[in-house]
Amino acid sequence: MGPESLRRGLTQCMHHGVCMVLDFHDFPAFDIDALFARDSFPSEVLEPSQLFDPRVYGPCLRPGDSFPPRAASASDEGSGAGAGSGFTACVPAASSVGAPHDDFAWEVANEDFQPQESFRFVAISALRQVPQCLRGRMNALAIDSARARAGAGTGEAALAGEAWRARRPSAEEAALLGAAYEGDVAEVQRLLEMRTDPRARDGRGNDALSEAAVVGHEEVARAILAHEAPLGSDPNSANSDGRTCLHRAAFHGHRGVVGLLLEHGADPRAKTTSTGERPFDISVDESTQELLAVWDAGVTDGLLEERRKAQEELEDRQAVDADDKRQLELRRKARRLLGMVDQDDCEGLELELLGFARGREVNALRD
Questions:
Q1: Beta-carbon count within 10 A of 252 CB
Q2: Element (H or E) spanning 121, and its range?
Q3: Domain boundaries, given as residue ranges, for the chain
Q4: Is there a contact between 280 and 289 (Cβ–Cβ < 8 Å)?
Q5: CA–CA distance from 254 to each of 115, 213, 239, 258 (Å)?
Q6: Rounded CA separation 71/320 (Å)
Q7: Contacting residues for 242 by C-beta, under 8 A, at least 6 apart
Q8: From CA 353, how far away is CA 80, in angstroms rounded?
Q9: What residues are paired with 244 via a beta bridge?
Q10: Between vectors from CA 103 to CA 99 and to CA 106, what angle results, nearest 5°?
Q11: How far apart are CA 18 and CA 27, in angstroms?
């Protein structure tokens, strides 16, 4: 992408208040600093608090730029040359002619360009490690495609979205999905021993545990749940419709599998994406409905807390340097915020935001 494309993309995204996303397939071989130029793509794009200074974004504007008007007012009519013309001309003030570039006092010829604070710059890559050129300059978020979730109580879903769609299962993972659906316990165990990922998903977002659950293969489900427990599989992962393995087992009346999933932390309060249905709501089997109705949600909360602690212990072991630890703390703050949003905890959310020492972190996490 050339400087002019970057400039147009940046100014339009700023004007509309949307994310500007650059996809770098191979970060190590790419010097992101080579992109930065004062009059097309300033390095302050990494510092939202500085980017909205007219002295920073001003040099990126051109007289021929066109921006859709946001809101017309009576004062806009007859305001002189350029009014209503659909472009913004940004020029140095007369008093600044000949001054150093950083000292320019920029004037906007009209108000067509209206940068919005909701603008964000996002860089994505398939790499698991933060590129050295961005360490300490951007907040990093690792997306685990196997943990993308939907529905209620899914703080991680807001972070991960539906990233699982980006990768097809490998041949071994496809074989595991098929064996789980067919109820072939021996083949499932063989593939798991080969370290085949049971969290890999098919085209609709169903993993091996969900495939076993939908047809009631209790022993297969038990083998998957026991694999590298408690983090080897996720009983609360959801497919593209927001249905968890508990939803699918309950829908078909597989009471034994429903009980097994509940004992391993499957949340009966999880809701589907579009209809907001819980496993109880879609079950047509009375005994399954009774089991779901009397299940103690406190037990689920305890199991989820054990899983959370195990996940944090794993993350702590993987954080090898100060930058890793800082990024880890930011991800945990994001999870707490999203959890509070899920629970409509406005008071806790406000206190958490006020507790941040730096405004930059609030800006990075608030969306």
A1: 18
A2: strand 120-124
A3: 3-65+91-134, 145-304, 322-365
A4: yes
A5: 54, 8, 19, 6
A6: 50
A7: 150, 151, 270, 271, 272, 273, 274
A8: 44
A9: 238
A10: 100
A11: 23
**CATH H superfamily, domain 145-304:** Ankyrin repeat-containing domain (1.25.40.20)
Q: Which residue type sits at 328?
A: L
Per the listing, tokens 């003030």 go with: 93
CA-CA distance, 179 to 280, in Å (whole number)?
28
**C-alpha closest to that of 41 among 53, 59, 63, 16:** 59
Residue written as tokens 């990075």?
364
What is the C-alpha separation between 41 and 59, in angstroms, rounded? 9
Q: How far is CA 243 from CA 145, 196, 366, in A?
A: 16, 23, 27
Under DSSP, is residue 172 helix (H, G, I), strand (E, B) or coil?
helix
37 alpha carbon, distance to own chain's centre: 29
Under 8 Å between Cβ of 111 and 104: no
Query: Any alpha helices (H) in the chain, and if so which ranges?
Result: 3-16, 48-51, 54-57, 155-160, 171-182, 185-193, 208-214, 218-226, 245-251, 255-263, 279-282, 286-294, 297-318, 322-342, 346-354, 359-365
Write the pLDDT tens digit of every residue in 49-91: 788 888 888 899 988 888 876 443 333 333 333 333 233 333 3
- CA–CA distance, 123 with 138 (Å, rounded to integer): 9
Let me know: does 119 contact 19? Beta carbons within 8 Å: yes
SS3 107: strand
Nearest alpha carbon to residue 134 among 30, 53, 48, 60: 30
Mean pLDDT by 10 residues, the chain (367 residues): 85 85 64 82 84 88 78 35 31 32 40 79 72 72 49 34 57 95 97 95 92 97 96 93 95 97 97 90 94 96 94 88 86 79 73 57 44
pTM: predicted TM-score of the whole model, two decimal places: 0.53
Query: Pairing state of beta strands 19-23 and 120-124?
Result: parallel
Q: What is the tens place of the pLDDT at every residue in 242-273? A: 999 999 999 999 999 999 999 999 999 999 98
Q: Which of 338, 366, 330 is nearest to 118 (CA)?
A: 366
